[in-house]
Amino acid sequence: MNAADEYLDDDLVVVHTVLGNAPAYVLMLRGTTSSWNAPALEAHFERAITHGIAVIVDCGALRFGDSNLLRLLLHTRALRQLVLVGPISTTFTHRLAVTGTAALFPITPTLTRALALVAS
After folding, report:
1. Residue 60 needs a FRET pair 20 to 30 A away by CA distance; which of 17, 41, 79, 92 works?
2. Where is the STAS domain (predicted)?
């Protein structure tokens, strides 16, 4: 595992990691996504997409995911293989259900399972 960097603000932490074995680009999200950190979050997703490999988004420590996060996930899914790692917060699970997008995202309970899914 090669930790690329970490982004911190009062509400959100994003850790980037590139895993060569799978290969996959992992974004670990901790905290809350909101309009305040939307531009930075978009830059993180674009960085992941430009690597040209599968993207895994670890949402296990995400307390709240807004509609912008859903938009970024849909955009990423259109361009790369995308797997989410849970558990997914109740509020974001509700957002996925209400928008009819829950079935679009494979969700695994661990990073290890997400990597296995990407490798298959």
Report:
1. 79
2. 26-118
Model's pTM, two decimal places? 0.91
Q: Which pLDDT tens digit goes with each residue over 52-63? A: 999 999 999 999
Give the Cβ contact number of residue 9 at 10 Å. 14
Q: CA end-to-end span of the chain, whole Å?
A: 19
Residue 96 to residues 11, 43, 53, 70, 76, Cα–Cα distance (Å): 21, 22, 24, 8, 15
Query: Domain with 41 in it: what CATH number?
Result: 3.30.750.24
| Residue 60 phi, psi dihedral angles, 5° rounding | -60, -30
Contact in structure between 72 and 101 (CB atoms under 8 Å): no
Query: How many structural domains compose the chain?
Result: 1
d(CA 18, CA 10): 25
- Percent of the chain scoring above 90 in pLDDT: 79
